[in-house]
């Protein structure tokens, strides 16, 4: 694996707080003065108890939720004012729920074609689906779950595992600068989940993608990636990388992470 | 025979409404009540302009633009104003009623003695009711070809994805608000144009001519689906037109049973309700496979 991280940050979160129910007695900070610097080539596994704010962190990076305080910088420039749609030029996401990631009544190939234009203007040009079919077949075959034989099937008729594999392909096919995976294997049975995790890791290594992956499986968090962070109460409370991460064991992690 | 010709002509002209509504009801996946206001809006706009001496083709084009404007307003209320789509449509439909009265200056405006798209030497030489068939056929062919082209472009695919899964659409950078507004504009433009053509064919515009038209437009969509089953998206567009013609035949038969024209809305509602209930009967009879409402395009391009 060649996860060579450089020293110029790709994305920085600086003193980010998000407040829900502001101006009411039940006002709470989900993210509380959170700081995180992501370098190109980082593959960061994200751990944290339920409700720690992991998905909220992704929503702030993705522009689905505004940072009420602090700033989000891409290559040093603030992207805080950019909408979710605008941020797709550098960012791709895979959600936990297989239903969220694909258009159910469109075919697998049509979904792949849609995602190949991630973040671009879409005009009145014929879509040219046929000229992409060979490419899509190869791409789908890389997922090793028979997806390549279902290119003309409506996505709604796929198995959960195939659907999630498609969501993953759609996220990585245009090689985004930053990939966010939010428990993307959690809804699948153990075998399918393991297989998607392996292909995920291969693809990230092969394309040198920068990735944040939320997981609730300690083994996966330890096995994959060059860096591991733990979130609790809306803050990054633990952050290890490189050799130090390799030395980490499940037992040691429990010390930081006794909720699980 | 002339009754059948008339039914085909009416079916073709009203199919424009079915196709317009298809964009919102089937692709964007919501019911747009605006159409009950835009249909008479198109009729009023075209008839008022023709009586002022405008070329009928140009007047029909203006009706299209008026419909797009109504769709734009509904779209802005819905996407930017966060008003639920049903309410946004009802607001625009209600407003359109007064606007239509303003445009015509009265409740009913005749085209007697004026030029229309249905009056020229060639059409006059055809047997009775063939003018409707001829004009309807040309308009439907043009619209269907344009829609099939549009839905097969990158923009059209983004539009379809918006209706199919807005969360996913946004996550790959599709501006779903814009797609929704665009869909409402095209849809209402088409429906207003349908109103302009129906008014010219009938020889008048009436401020109440929009009542119940959403049911008629839906009927052509649903009848097409019930009659032809699983189809690709392009084929489904054609099925809407055939469904619209079938609907006219059903009406023709029912009207033979001594119902009056006043019963039309009741009959339309009953026909539509029966078609909507049909899949349930089929299920009951163990024909379990429901009609798959595909938005997949043909795979050949
Ligand atoms: N829109 C919201 N309004 C109120 N509370 C919210 C909202 N979104 C998330 N929360 C709360 O914020 C906390 C963090 O949520 P989340 O980021 O989804 O946690 P995680 O993904 O780590 O399980 C939870 O306690 C959740 O209930
Ligand atoms: Mg979560």
From TrEMBL, chain A:
Cellular component terms (Gene Ontology): plasma membrane
Alphabetic keyword roster: ATP-binding, Cell membrane, Membrane, Nucleotide-binding, Transport
Domain ABC transporter, first and last residues per copy: 11-258
Where is it localised? Cell membrane
Q: How does it sit in the membrane?
A: Peripheral membrane protein
Q: Name one Pfam family in it.
A: ABC_tran
Record's keyword annotation contains Cell membrane? yes
GO terms for molecular function, please?
Answer: ATP binding; ATP hydrolysis activity
- InterPro entries tied to this protein: AAA+_ATPase (IPR003593), ABC_transporter-like_ATP-bd (IPR003439), ABC_transporter-like_CS (IPR017871), ABC_transporter_ATP-bind (IPR050166), P-loop_NTPase (IPR027417)
* Superkingdom assignment: Bacteria
Respond yes or no to whether keyword Ribosomal protein is given for this record.
no
Q: Which protein, by its recorded name, is this? A: ABC transporter ATP-binding protein
Automatic annotation (TrEMBL), chain B:
Q: Which domain of life is it from?
A: Bacteria
Q: How does it sit in the membrane?
A: Multi-pass membrane protein
Per the UniProt record, one Pfam family is: BPD_transp_2
Q: Where in the cell is it found?
A: Cell membrane
Q: Which keywords does this chain's UniProt record carry?
A: Cell membrane, Membrane, Transmembrane, Transmembrane helix
Kindly report the protein's main subcellular placement as a broad class.
membrane
Any one Gene Ontology MF annotation carried by this entry is: transmembrane transporter activity
CDD domains reported in the protein's UniProt record: TM_PBP1_branched-chain-AA_like (cd06574)
For this record, the Gene Ontology CC terms, alphabetical, are:
plasma membrane
Q: Tell me where the transmembrane regions lie.
A: 12-28, 57-78, 85-104, 129-151, 179-199, 211-228, 237-258, 264-281
Q: Which PANTHER family match?
A: ABC TRANSPORTER PERMEASE PROTEIN YPHD-RELATED-RELATED, BRANCHED-CHAIN AMINO ACID TRANSPORT SYSTEM, PERMEASE PROTEIN
Report the protein name in the record.
ABC transporter permease
The species is Furfurilactobacillus siliginis
């Amino acid at each position: 694996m060649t996860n060579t991280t450089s020293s110029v940050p790709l994305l920085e979160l600086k003193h980010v707080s998000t407040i829900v129910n502001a101006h009411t007695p039940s006002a709470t900070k989900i993210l509380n003065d959170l700081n995180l610097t992501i370098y190109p080539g980082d593959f960061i596994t994200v751990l944290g108890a339920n409700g720690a704010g992991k998905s909220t962190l992704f929503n702030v990076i993705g522009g689905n939720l505004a940072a009420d305080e602090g700033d989000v910088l891409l290559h040093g420039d603030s992207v805080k004012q950019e909408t979710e749609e605008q941020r797709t030029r550098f960012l791709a996401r895979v959600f936990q729920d297989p239903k969220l990631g694909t258009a159910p009544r469109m075919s697998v190939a049509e979904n792949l074609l849609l995602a190949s234009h991630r973040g671009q203007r879409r005009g009145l040009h014929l879509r040219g689906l046929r000229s992409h079919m060979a490419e899509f077949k190869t791409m789908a075959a890389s997922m090793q779950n028979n997806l390549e034989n279902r290119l003309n099937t409506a996505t709604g008729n796929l198995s959960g595992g195939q659907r999630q594999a498609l969501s993953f392909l759609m996220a990585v096919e245009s090689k985004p600068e930053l990939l966010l995976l939010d428990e993307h294997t959690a809804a699948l049975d153990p075998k399918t989940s393991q297989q998607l995790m392996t292909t995920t890791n291969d693809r990230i290594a092969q394309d040198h993608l920068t990735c944040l992956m939320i997981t609730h499986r300690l083994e996966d968090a330890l096995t994959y990636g060059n860096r591991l962070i733990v979130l609790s109460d809306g803050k990054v409370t633990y952050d290890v990388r490189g050799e130090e991460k390799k030395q980490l064991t499940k037992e040691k992690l429990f010390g930081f992470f006794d909720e699980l | 025979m002339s009754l059948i010709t008339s039914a085909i002509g009416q079916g073709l002209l009203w199919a424009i409404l079915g196709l317009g509504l298809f964009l919102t009801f089937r692709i964007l996946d919501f019911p747009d009540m605006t159409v009950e206001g835009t249909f008479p809006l198109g009729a009023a706009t075209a008839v008022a302009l023709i009586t002022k001496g405008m070329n009928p083709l140009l007047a029909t084009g203006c009706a299209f633009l008026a419909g797009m404007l109504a769709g734009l307003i509904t779209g802005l209320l819905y996407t930017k104003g966060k008003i639920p789509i049903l309410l946004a449509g009802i607001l625009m439909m209600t407003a359109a009623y007064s606007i239509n009265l303003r445009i015509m200056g009265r409740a009913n405006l005749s085209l007697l003695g004026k030029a229309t798209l249905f009056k020229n030497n060639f059409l006059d030489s055809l047997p009775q009711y063939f003018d409707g068939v001829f004009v309807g056929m040309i308009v439907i062919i043009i619209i269907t070809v344009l829609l099939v082209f549009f839905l097969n472009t990158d923009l059209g695919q983004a539009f379809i994805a918006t209706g199919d899964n807005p969360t996913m659409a946004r996550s790959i950078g599709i501006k779903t608000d814009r797609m929704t507004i665009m869909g409402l504009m095209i849809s209402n433009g088409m429906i207003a144009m349908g109103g302009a053509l129906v008014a010219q064919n009938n020889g008048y515009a009436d401020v109440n001519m929009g009542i119940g038209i959403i049911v008629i437009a839906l009927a052509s969509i649903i009848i097409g689906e019930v009659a032809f089953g699983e189809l690709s998206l392009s084929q489904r567009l054609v099925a809407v037109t055939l469904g619209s013609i079938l609907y006219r035949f059903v009406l023709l038969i029912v009207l033979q049973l001594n119902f009056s024209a006043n019963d039309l809305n009741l009959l339309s509602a009953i026909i539509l309700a029966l078609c909507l209930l049909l899949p349930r009967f089929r299920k009951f009879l163990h024909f379990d496979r429901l009609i798959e409402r595909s938005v997949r395009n043909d795979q050949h391009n």
